[in-house]
Automatic annotation (TrEMBL):
Region ranges (Disordered): 33-76
Gene3D superfamilies cross-referenced by the UniProt entry: Acid Proteases (2.40.70.10)
Record field: compositional bias (Basic and acidic residues): 33-58
InterPro entries hit by this protein: Peptidase_aspartic_dom_sf
Protein name per UniProt: Reverse transcriptase domain-containing protein
Length: 204
């Protein structure tokens, strides 16, 4: 029944969110919310809240681990830029939902759609039907002896592994990494699965 719009979580209501209140207090201190501040509020009460804010924030961090926005540091012409998800990214998305995260990436200069982001996967997977469309000779696959074990316990033997260039984002805000994909010949609605190795390379 509870939902916090600040954390996009069900552990508490927005009105009960201490971290949001502390954030608002901090913005007031920096002068960003002057037009919303009650000028008639007793000064002592405002000062008391300011003193309590750091202590409340520390207590909250001990009680719960808030969901933080995903961020990525990209180097753009020598400068570092932090890219995060904001409210704008949720336009047209009905919350809450359990939909998978599916993205489009540039793989070996080909635009590859239907790539599943799976932080539970310890490998980056490329399905054979997508590998074939890249027109890379099969003899470039390196031998892989270790089988993959799926969620249900099924064992899949990869056809091999291959290092491919992957570009995430669009210019000028993009980054390029070299990812080792395991190529598997099994049916899938996705072209690829991006797991922890690629996510860590992207610092995503």
């Amino acid at each position: 029944e509870k939902y916090c719009r600040y954390h996009r979580d069900h552990r508490h209501d927005t009105e009960e969110c201490r971290q949001l209140k502390n954030h608002i207090e901090d913005m007031i201190r920096k002068g960003h919310l002057r037009r919303y501040v009650d000028r008639d509020a007793p000064q002592g009460r405002r000062e008391q809240r300011r003193e309590e804010a750091p202590r409340q924030q520390e207590e909250q961090q001990q009680q719960q681990q808030p969901r933080v926005p995903h961020s990525k540091r990209l180097k753009t012409e020598g400068d570092e830029e932090v890219i995060t998800f904001s409210e704008v990214d949720y336009e047209g998305v009905r919350l809450p939902h359990d939909d998978p995260v599916v993205v489009t990436l540039l793989v070996e200069l080909f635009t590859m759609k239907r790539i599943l982001i799976d932080s539970g996967s310890s490998a980056d997977i490329l399905y054979k039907h997508a590998f074939d469309q890249l027109r890379i000779p099969a003899d470039q696959l390196k031998l892989v002896k270790t089988p993959l074990v799926g969620f249900a316990g099924e064992t899949i033997h990869p056809l091999g592994s291959i290092n491919l260039s992957v570009v995430a984002g669009t210019a000028p805000r993009q980054t390029q990494v070299e990812v080792t994909f395991l190529v598997v010949d099994t049916p899938s609605p996705y072209n690829s699965i991006v797991g922890r190795p690629c996510l860590n390379l992207l610092e995503a």
